[in-house]
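Render this sequence as a predicted structure.
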Amino acid sequence: MSRTVYSILISAFLMIHSLGKAQEKAIVFPVVSIRANPFSFIETDAGIQVGIGYRWKKRWGATMDPTYIFYTPVRNFETNDRDARSGIKIRSDVRYYFGRGFRSRSSFIGPELHYKYVSSKKWSDFGINCVGQTCDYYMTTTYREIRNEIGVALKAGFTRPIGTRLALEGYGGLGIKFVHIEEKDVPLGASFVIIPIHDDVFGIPDSKPRPYTPIGVKLVYSFYK
């Protein structure tokens, strides 16, 4: 056979081989993933976070990350104890991916919705049956502080594969949230000696828009064919 025929056969073999490799590496969408926050146990409202991701195309996906809150690592300044608390936090987003592909490092951007409900057991001093500055007597007892948050943000991040199916995700964002706090289970006829202040670190009062800056790291394990 001539050199030209050899060249054609070699080229055809290399093309078929490369197509076979590409087919082996091709991923059939949609892809479902399980997501976990390895640092959820040290957040202010701490608990277990296990979420789910759904990527229906190479460029488009969505996530839902619920956290079951059951304690706080932060001690109360006055009692030096940890306030008993429970609740749930949910963060969900829709994202557009940039980058070369599923198994390579890529980045993403998209809107996120945030919701959190937390019930905390707190201690305080109360005056009973107060008229003006005069009370029948005083007592120290517990009450519940209920905190509701809802917010939205635009966030961006990246994913970096650290295994065949395992990846590391990091993200950050900026948005606003609304916070509403109220006290429950206050003793009958009781008044706070010191009224709780619900301003945040910026001095923004309750029910006014506050900055919302989601930031975090996730471990992501994907299931695909």
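Summary. The radius of gyration is 27 Å. The chain has one domain: 28-223.
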